[in-house]
Recover the amino acids of this structure.
């Protein structure tokens, strides 16, 4: 479908007799394949719970899904024939690392068409304004996260309100409702509302394939019960109900690769360096159970006080 076949290996051979488009296509594909074998590079460059802005090499997670974040903060690129989707933008400084990582993989920033988010805190969306400028992409947010993304100030209902750094606000192009599938060409990603860590947090689920082998990838939000000193989850029963419902949804998602906004929350480095890999049977269920335990413990402590 791309016209005259070209050689796979030699770039000088590629340059002869191929259309510019085809050379570009192959250069990008070969480069991406080189990166695919570079799981180990990220695991060696980064440590567990590493610095938020520390550069780490990008790598292929599976199929058209790439890790383009820093050592400490995840950002995910999902590529498609009608453009690419980027989930999360790191901190303001981390955005530069993410932009460079996308280009290192051979992808163009201008081909990023949609920006999505996990939860609306500065370590994950502080760099969105810069990335929106660099890419020209549209930003889609949950209804609850929209005012936070616009202003850069956390919601008053956020358990960590008052203790979070503000970040550059940006343009929100569209609100997405829960389970309203976001489509870009052949890409489709499903948002799941998972409030708890923040009111507007989203978990995303999509399918990535390598030939006939497809994996259901879940980018599950942090969901950890962290708050300011004065906040008590037990004072907000409706919020806790929605929190628990979100955890239940995560547990039940079709999920063969679990990714999280802080890579160490799902043991990414350990899974990459041990050779275990990122495909696992019940990662989402175990992740949700672990956090449910933390939430129970947190609420028990509050009622003991
Ligand atoms: Zn965070």
């Amino acid at each position: 479908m791309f016209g005259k076949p070209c050689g796979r290996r030699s770039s000088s051979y590629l340059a002869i007799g191929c259309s510019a488009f085809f050379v570009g296509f192959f250069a990008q594909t070969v480069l991406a394949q080189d990166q695919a074998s570079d799981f180990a590079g990220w695991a060696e460059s980064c440590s567990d719970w590493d610095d938020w802005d520390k550069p780490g090499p990008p790598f292929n997670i599976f199929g058209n899904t790439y890790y383009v974040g820093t050592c400490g903060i995840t950002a995910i690129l999902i590529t498609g024939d009608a453009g690419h989707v980027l989930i999360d933008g790191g901190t303001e400084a981390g955005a530069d690392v993410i932009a460079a990582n996308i280009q290192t993989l051979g992808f163009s920033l201008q081909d990023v068409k949609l920006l999505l988010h996990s939860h609306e805190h500065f370590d994950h969306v502080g760099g969105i304004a810069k990335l929106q400028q660099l890419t020209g992409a549209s930003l889609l947010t949950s209804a609850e996260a929209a005012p936070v993304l616009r202003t850069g100030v956390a919601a008053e209902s956020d358990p960590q309100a008052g203790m979070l750094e503000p970040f550059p606000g940006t343009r929100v192009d569209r609100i997405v409702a829960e389970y309203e599938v976001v489509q870009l060409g052949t890409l489709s990603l499903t948002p799941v509302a998972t409030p708890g860590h923040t009111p507007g947090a989203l978990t995303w689920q999509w399918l990535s394939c390598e030939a006939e082998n497809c994996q259901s990838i879940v980018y599950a939000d942090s969901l950890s019960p962290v708050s300011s000193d004065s906040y008590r989850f037990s004072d907000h029963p409706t919020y806790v109900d929605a929190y628990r419902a979100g955890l239940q949804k995560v547990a039940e998602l079709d999920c063969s690769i679990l990714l999280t906004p802080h890579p160490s929350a799902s043991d990414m480095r350990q899974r990459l360096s041990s050779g275990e890999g990122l495909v696992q049977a019940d990662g989402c269920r175990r992740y949700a159970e672990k956090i449910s335990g933390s939430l129970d413990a947190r609420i028990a402590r509050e009622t003991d006080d």
The first helix runs from residue 11 to 14. The mean pLDDT is 89. DSSP finds ten helices and twelve strands in the chain. Residues 121, 123-124, 222, 261-262 surround zinc ion (CB under 6 Å).
